[in-house]
Structure formats: C-alpha cells, structure tokens
Design goal:
The protein is built from 13 helices and 2 strands. Strands 1-2 form a two-stranded antiparallel sheet.
C-alpha cells in the first residue's frame, strides 16, 4: 500500500506531488500512452509506475535513503533498491518489444522495468521534455483563458502568472487576493478585484472571465 504523506520527511508535499506527476505522465508517454497500455491490457502497470516515480524523485531530488523511501511508498527496501538501480536502456528495450513479453509479464510490470522507465522519464522532465499530453493541455488552457478574456491587455498574462499553481476550484477570495495584491488591473489593485468577483471559480478561463465582467461593471473594460 502506498502511503501518501510526506509529513515525516520535512519536505514540500505539493512540490513532491507535482514533480512525481510530471514524471508519471512522461513515463506513460514513453510506454506509448494510455491507449497502447489499454490495447495490451497492461493498465495494471500504473500503480507500479507511480511507486517507481515516487522512489526516483525522493532519491534524486530529496536524497532520501532506501529505507525511508520504502516506508513512504509501501515497498520492501530490496524492491526500492532494485528500482533505484534499474537500467533505463534495458527497460526501454523491453517496452519497445511489448509483443514479445509473456502474458505474466504483461500483467505485472517488473520493478526493474518500472524503475528504468521512471528514471528515464525523470531525466527527460528535468531536461524540459515534459509529457506532450500535459504540454498540449497547458497550451489549450492558456489559449482558452485568453480567448475567454478577449484580452489584448497585459493584465491577463499577469493574473495567470501570479495565480500559477493555485488549486481549482477556487472557493473564496482569500488566496487570490494575496496573490494579486499589487497587480494593477485597469488601474484597480488585484486584491480588490479578487475580492469582488464571484466564486467558486473552476478554471483559469473562468477566473479571467469573472475579472473581465467585474472590470466592465466598473466601466474599466
């Protein structure tokens, strides 16, 4: 059982989760995407891949020892050691020859393979090669947000920049007020704008739209 708490690690759990998720999605890309995994009926690999992603990030980013990683992800110390020592080249060779795997191997992702894929995914993410699926989604969200705001002014870019990483849905104004304090939006302080828009806000596009509506109500748009 994976134990999803980093309270004993004295680390930023959100930062850990975000990097692990980026590594996890990149690993899925390396495996050919969810569609390919579904075709090969290997979706059972995903929990092993998630544990491997946590193990690699905890070691590479936070220098955690094997026993602490084992406790965190719910694996034995030996299994964690095998993940950390996995060879990415061998793992990718296996992945490129999925058709040749035995039925047993297709059902269960070996720790060496999971570790190798997660290692390679981590390396690529650190080099700036995030999952194409995530990049496409981010571009789409940004385009949707700017379109929703119909914005030729720079305030939308500033709002998106300042609100980056905020958790949606945003249910009240408090966090957004803090983040937008000092940002001038058509001559109005961002904290004042955040205080007067409607909540909850489910997406960045909704946030920009709500701000634009408020500006219009103030004769500023």
């Amino acid at each position: 059982m994976i134990i999803l708490t980093a309270s004993g690690f004295n680390i930023d759990e959100k930062e850990l989760d975000r990097l692990v998720e980026r590594v996890f999605f990149k690993a899925i890309d390396l495996l050919g995407g969810l569609k390919k995994l579904a075709e090969f009926r290997t979706l059972t690999w995903l929990p092993s891949l998630a544990r491997a992603a946590f193990a690699i990030v905890l070691r590479e980013e936070y220098l955690k020892p094997e026993d602490e990683i084992a406790e965190y992800v719910g694996l034995t110390r030996n299994t964690v050691r095998n993940i950390l020592r996995a060879d990415p080249d061998q793992a990718m060779y296996k992945i490129e020859h999925l058709e040749e795997l035995s039925e047993e191997e297709k059902k269960e992702l070996k720790v060496h393979t999971a570790g190798g894929v997660a290692k390679l995914a981590y390396k690529l993410v650190k080099e700036g090669q995030d999952s194409q699926t995530m990049l496409d989604f981010c571009h789409a969200v940004a385009a949707e947000s700017l379109k929703a705001a119909s914005c030729e002014s720079p305030w939308a870019y500033l709002v998106l920049k300042k609100s980056k990483g905020i958790s949606y849905p945003v249910v009240d104004s408090k966090e957004l007020e803090n983040r937008l304090a000092g940002v001038q939006i058509k001559g109005i302080d961002g904290s004042e704008v955040a205080k007067n828009i409607a909540y909850p806000i489910k997406t960045p596009a909704e946030m920009l739209h709500a701000i634009k509506e408020y500006l219009q109500s103030q004769g500023q748009a």
